[in-house]
Amino acid sequence: MKVPIVVGVNDSGANEAAVAWAMHRAAAMKLPVDLVHAVDDRWMSESFAYNEMAKRAAKELLGKAKAHAAGVEPSVDVRTLLIPGSAGYALRKRSKKAALVVIGSGTRVRPGGRLTDRALQIAAVALCPVAVVGEDAVSNRQGVLVGVDGSEESTQAVAFAAAEADREGQELTVLHAFRAFRPWVLLARSEGNPAEKMLEEERVTLSEAVAGLAEDYPDLVVHQLLEIDKDPAAALVEAASNSQLLVLGSRGRGSFKRLLLGSTAHAVLSQLSCPTIITRVRGAKNTK
Prior knowledge:
Layout (H helix, E strand, L loop, with lengths): L4 E4 L6 H15 L3 E7 L8 H25 L5 E7 L2 H9 L4 E5 L4 E2 L2 E2 H11 L4 E4 L10 E4 L4 H17 L3 E6 L4 H7 L5 H17 L2 H4 L5 E6 L4 H8 L5 E5 L13 H8 L5 E4 L9
Parallel strand pairs: 1-2, 1-4, 2-3, 4-7, 8-9, 8-11, 9-10, 11-12
Antiparallel strand pairs: 5-6, 7-12
Helix pairs in contact: 1-2, 3-4, 6-7, 9-10
């Protein structure tokens, strides 16, 4: 049996967009879809009647989500799952045997935190790639964007993004950005100085990230973009404003090993400008 795309279902405005995005992907990849909703019983009263009411409301929510999914892509096999516990717990559990976890991003406050906070938590703990989809329309967008920084995670994110771009018939843009000390930036624009040598090292980081793509994907158009005076998150958010998809590694070379989600990925998800996939690469280690 094919592993499913798992969609976290809630009543936020981004929910329908996330379900639709997941259904289109499932149809293209011929995968089933699991619509999952968590009933967080930590916040429930001990009243049996109240608990039953909450479960009925959750089942109705899943039913509406399934009807919406069927209207988007009738050919996709869809099932619904109601799981007790937090959203993070439920989706982490399902991510063990999932091709992708898809969640909507939002800002409305509810028990347990803002929906954006929950999206960040789920992206951090899931055991497979996680796609975060906002409410903004995704039609008329072009290209796949991937951020790199020389870490093993970002290198493998490039491989994921290249496969995505090739499958979708899109061009791939590989972006490497770093915030340099302003006088250093000005100095680097003249040749024959230490700053230029450091800048060349960053160019090498970018070129190494795309090495081998032409051989693996001969028809794929690849663009390299080096930003030497921008914060990585800001550069990615700006570049992704018209992109079909943004891909990031879960951590970069600047993250503490104990962190499950790097600061750049965290910042990008907080300013979501297009559907964004955080890759989850098991066994990857920082070498820098």
